[in-house]
Design brief:
mainly alpha, Growth Hormone, Chain: A, 2 domains, about 75% helix, globular, MFS_trans_sf, transmembrane helix, Benzoate transport, membrane, MFS
């Protein structure tokens, strides 16, 4: 809903009212074609993100054999991409609140496509690390920008579901990639897999350019050239009344935007707890998604079945993310995250401690995906609910950027533990602990009252 008054008070969501006037407003649960299109495009882009991140874990066994890469060095390659995602979320994503979400998403896609080509052409481990870092910058920026854009365009009643469902695109892309890699890797090699991912990223650019709209909140508050006409065109496409003029810029409320806005109006404690939740959650999440094919081999599965274990994990992730998005519209999202992450700790310990036949191993991998990815991805709509529109891009970007500290630590720590010949039960027990911490921190966050 976009509220606009002569004093310059603006709050933009998918629907519009004009303060002091009787303007018709659609139901807060009604979807329009424009809103569905925005969420669908962001979902597809998140599929590409899942492909670009997880493809490295699928090709890791072949890469290790081809280049004779030790687990420690492979952990650095995993963490390079995650460090780039941290840089993107912390340094680049907040620029969306200043320059526009659409522009930043397009620029990030160009960066991702170019760096993926660089990954495919890498001649040594150093070049691969650099290219993966640049890929990570693009992904970290896109993830935060898409979540903020989806939160704005979704009907208020369905915002939690929309932002949660958006994240389901990530495991869907990873799952499809896993099955494709499992069948084509032995034929074409790991470089061809990276090249195919780069081509898909490049092909997405013209569609995003033509179909993805700019944030209405950005148009009305930052007021770039042609802002009024663009905003009204978007509002009419959603069946909403147009505004007659742009509001006065909210210079006096600048403290609410940017990084300062994350700590303003009593949000400091919630912000710190959210950061602790994302650091801990990312630590477990990226340990699992980076190493599960390799760990499945360590547990005795053939290489192809190990890749399938990674793909099935991501099927579970899709189910978990979708279910928490639906449940979050009816139940307290914070308690759902706690429940999911507690169950994740149990399934992790089970996977690492109990010798199981193939079917049971794959089933356990599925439930790890449900609870680890589902529970952690609840942090995206949680962040969207914690911050106001003018600070939402920065809030999500910083939550996920700071959280990448855990994402960098997780794969590297996993690599060192494997290199030190630590037993699988101990390794999985170690990473069950931050999962529980993430759930507890999320449950302690106090959210602002609904508008």
């Amino acid at each position: 809903m976009a509220s606009y008054s002569a004093t310059g008070s603006v709050s933009v969501r998918p629907y519009v009212t004009v303060d002091g006037q009787a303007a018709p407003v659609a139901s807060d649960s009604q979807w329009t074609a424009r809103q569905i299109l925005v969420v669908a495009i962001c979902f597809i882009l998140n599929m590409l993100d899942g492909m670009d991140v997880l493809i490295l874990s699928y090709i890791a066994p072949a890469l290790s054999t081809d280049w004779q890469v030790t687990p420690e060095r492979l952990g650095v390659v995993f963490s390079a991409g995650l460090a780039g995602m941290a840089a993107g979320g912390l340094l680049i994503a907040p620029m969306a609140d200043r320059f526009g979400r659409r522009k930043l998403i397009l620029a990030s896609l160009v960066m991702m496509a170019g760096a993926m080509f660089g990954s495919a052409m890498a001649a040594n481990i150093g070049e691969l690390i650099v290219s993966r870092f640049i890929v990570g910058i693009g992904i970290g920026t896109v993830l935060a920008s898409m979540a903020a854009l989806t939160a704005e365009y979704a009907p208020p009643r369905h915002r939690t579901f929309a932002v949660g469902f958006l994240q389901a695109g990530y495991p869907v892309g990873a799952t499809i990639t896993g099955f494709v890699v499992a069948n084509l890797l032995p034929i074409y090699g790991w470089q061809a897999m990276l090249l195919g991912a780069a081509i898909l990223c490049a092909l997405s650019l013209p569609f995003v350019w033509l179909l993805l709209p700019e944030s209405i909140d950005f148009l009305l508050t930052r007021q770039p050239r042609g802002a009024l006409e663009k905003a009204n065109r978007l509002l009419r496409s959603m069946g909403q009344p147009a505004v007659d003029a742009l509001p006065a810029k909210k210079v006096h409320e600048a403290h609410k935007a940017g990084v300062r806005g994350l700590l303003a109006d009593g949000r400091a404690t919630g912000t710190i707890l959210l950061w602790m939740a994302t650091i801990s959650g990312f630590m477990t999440l990226y340990f699992v998604i980076s190493w599960i094919p390799k760990l499945a081999v360590e547990a005795g599965l053939p290489a192809k079945d190990a890749i399938y274990a990674g793909a099935i994990y991501n099927i579970g992730a899709f189910v978990g993310v979708t279910l928490i998005g639906i449940a979050g519209t009816h139940f307290d999202l914070r308690r759902l995250i706690l429940g999911y992450m507690s169950a994740a700790a149990v399934t992790l310990v089970l996977f690492g401690s109990v010798a199981m036949p193939l079917v049971a191993t794959l089933t356990t991998a599925f439930f790890i995906g449900v609870f680890v990815q589902g529970g952690f991805n609840g942090c995206y709509p949680l962040a969207a609910s914690l911050y106001p529109p003018e600070a939402r891009g920065t809030g999500i970007g910083w939550a996920m950027g700071v959280g990448r500290i855990g994402a960098v630590i997780g794969p590297m720590l996993g690599g060192f533990l494997l290199a030190a010949k630590v037993s699988l039960p101990v390794i999985f027990g170690v990473f069950a602990v931050p999962a529980v911490i993430a759930g507890i921190c999320a449950a302690m966050i106090r959210l602002p009252k609904a508008d």
